[in-house]
Design brief:
- With 559 residues, the chain is an alpha/beta fold.
- It folds into two domains: 243 residues, 3-Layer(bba) Sandwich (FAD/NAD(P)-binding domain); 289 residues.
- It is 34% helix and 18% strand.
- It is built from 18 helices and 21 strands.
- Strands 2, 3, 12, 13, 14, 15 and 21 form a seven-stranded mixed sheet that branches.
- The longest helix is centred in the first third of the chain and has 21 residues.
- It is globular.
- The termini are far apart.
């Protein structure tokens, strides 16, 4: 049910060909959102830029596809919040049709039939927490303050280039001084808390504030989504923080739907890029990055065509770039060893479901605002950890953690009138099954049935409403989007793989060890999610190398 033959693509038209006798200023490999961000900034600066995409559609993991007549699925990424508002303003994405609609609430459906509702309004949500624990309701204010304080400290770093702490270049020294001053601004106590936060598990962090299991389970989900770690694993507290750094209409930590699905983000970026003369070529997979004399010269496509460029920028993850399409003999041995050690472990799956109507959930009024947000079934930390235990044994979780949404309650454009689209993100699913079976077979649908059964256990009419579903295992995600092992962040967000360690110490400034070759994907700073920051940061460094000052002067003034 997840084959892409006959796919109707919700994407803008693209160029049918590129000239082989031309030397482009820049070629971007991969039309995912970060690649399109880089391309749009470079084209806006006046460069002759081409984007190459292996699929018949653009978007990478931020794509809207119609696999069932009348329905549009956000096939991989499914919600918007992390995308930087600075980029939206710079590229005028709203002029190209991008519209973000905030959630109205959310809910965790407990095994005992109770419901823990979440609300957009802080005070209303606090009252809901008080139904379970007055102590937790009081602690929620302190928790929110602590998390937002750390978010505000980290957010200015997202659109900055990490310094090389081993370098004596004036720019690196200046950036290290900026970091030191910025860190000191926290004060002695908060400095210690921030350092400790990067090493904490999400379970330990939440234990410091809350006593009620369902409250902790609700918040803990943001610490494990897309991560090959469990709630008790050190480092997962930062993953929660990473998810909280979003911003919708000035509301920090808010989440929302892109009208028309996540492909609308890519469509708007492509529109901005093309408005500056950029060119996109789909069905154009890169077989090799060509080099001569230690410098990048262009790309060789799988169809045999060679395209030349002064700069080549890879939006692929660091492993796929340097172990698949760059000849190993042009790379330093130590660099290649570190690339192979970079942690990219798949842990997620996805179901997209066409529904004949809105499911009824036990003990929830049909118009309740919590249904217009994220829905969960995992009501305890123990259940979440057991799901991770299954993954460690090479099995999909028998009782998975899901992040489930029905976007059509807010965006009716994605399904026919009266019908609905359901997005179900699933944690955990291993990229390789320990019983030796392939995902491309009965295992895929067995995985789907596990998830469908969990939903049906809380919704008496759910099964009768299912008209079609698409299943994406980690193998399917890798095959289509090129994300190694289906890892949605292009590499885990642990402290050893963040800031100047991302992706490789000494190569965190978006430049590869081959001249004129750059990286712009989520393997680079500040990491994954539909954020756009890696793409913007890479563009800034490329323009710097070309002595073109075409980025926000407010950012430059701080460097």
């Amino acid at each position: 049910m997840n084959q892409l033959s006959g796919v109707e693509v919700a994407a803008p038209s693209v160029q049918s060909s590129l000239r082989e006798d031309r030397v482009y200023d820049a070629i971007i490999i991969g039309a995912g959102h970060n690649g399109l961000v880089t391309a749009a900034y470079l084209a806006r600066a006046g460069l002759d830029v081409a984007v190459l995409e292996k699929n018949p559609h653009i978007g990478g993991a931020a794509v809207s596809l119609s696999l069932y007549e009348g329905w549009t699925y956000s096939n991989c990424s499914y919600v918007c919040s992390l995308f930087r508002p600075e980029i939206m303003r710079d590229l005028e994405l709203y002029k190209h049709g991008l519209q973000i609609i905030p959630y109205e609430g959310g809910m965790t459906m407990m095994a005992n039939g109770e419901r823990f509702h979440t609300y957009y309004d802080h005070n209303v949500f606090r009252q809901e927490i008080a139904r379970f624990s007055k102590k937790d309701a009081d602690a929620y204010d302190a928790y929110s303050t602590a998390v937002m304080k750390m978010c505000r400290w980290i957010k200015p770093m997202l659109l900055r280039t990490p310094p090389d702490p081993t370098s004596f270049k004036p720019r690196d020294i200046a950036e290290l001084l900026y970091l030191g001053k910025h860190f000191a601004s926290l004060g002695e106590r908060d400095m210690g808390e921030l350092v400790r936060f990067f090493t904490l598990s999400i379970a330990d962090f939440l234990d410091e504030y809350f006593e009620t299991d369902v409250v902790k389970a609700h918040f803990a989900g943001s610490g494990i989504i897309g991560t090959a770690l469990g709630p008790y694993s050190p480092g997962t507290a930062y993953v929660l923080l990473h998810h909280y750094m979003g911003d919708i209409d000035g509301s920090v930590g808010a989440w929302g739907f892109a009208r028309g699905g996540m492909g609308s983000v890519s469509k708007a970026l492509a529109g901005a890029f093309k408005s500056h003369g950029g060119k996109i070529l789909c069905d154009s997979e890169v077989a090799q990055i060509t080099t001569q004399g230690g410098a990048c010269t262009g790309v060789l496509l799988t169809n045999g065509n060679v395209l030349r460029a002064k700069k080549v920028i890879s939006n692929l993850d660091v492993k796929r770039t340097f172990t698949k399409i760059v000849k190993p003999d042009v790379l330093p041995e130590n660099f290649l060893r570190q690339v192979n050690n970079f942690k990219i472990r798949g842990s997620s799956g996805k179901l997209n479901i066409a529904l004949g109507g809105m499911p009824i959930f036990d003990n929830v009024p049909s118009e309740h605002p919590s249904l217009r947000g994220d829905l969960h079934f995992t009501d305890s930390m123990a259940r979440m950890e057991r799901g991770y235990d299954d993954w460690k044994e090479g099995r999909w979780s028998a009782d998975p953690y899901v992040d489930m949404l029905v976007p059509t309650q807010i965006d009716p454009t994605m399904a026919p009138p009266g019908k609905h689209y359901m997005s179900v993100f699933v944690q955990y699913a291993p990229p390789t099954l320990s019983d030796g079976r392939s995902w491309d077979g009965p295992a895929r649908d067995e995985f789907a049935q596990t998830v469908l059964n969990q939903i049906a256990s809380q919704s008496p009419n759910f099964r009768d409403l299912v008209l079609h579903y698409e299943v994406r295992s980690p193998w399917d995600i890798e095959r289509e989007t090129g994300l190694t092992e289906g890892n949605i962040f292009q590499g885990e967000l642990t402290m050893d793989q963040l800031i100047f360690n991302r992706p490789i110490p000494g190569y965190a400034q978006f430049r590869a060890p081959v001249r004129n070759l750059y990286m712009c994907g989520s393997s680079t700073h500040p990491g994954g999610g539909v954020m756009g920051a890696p793409g913007a940061n890479a563009a800034r460094e490329i323009l710097r190398d070309l002595s073109i000052r075409n980025f926000d002067p407010r950012q430059e003034a701080e460097i």
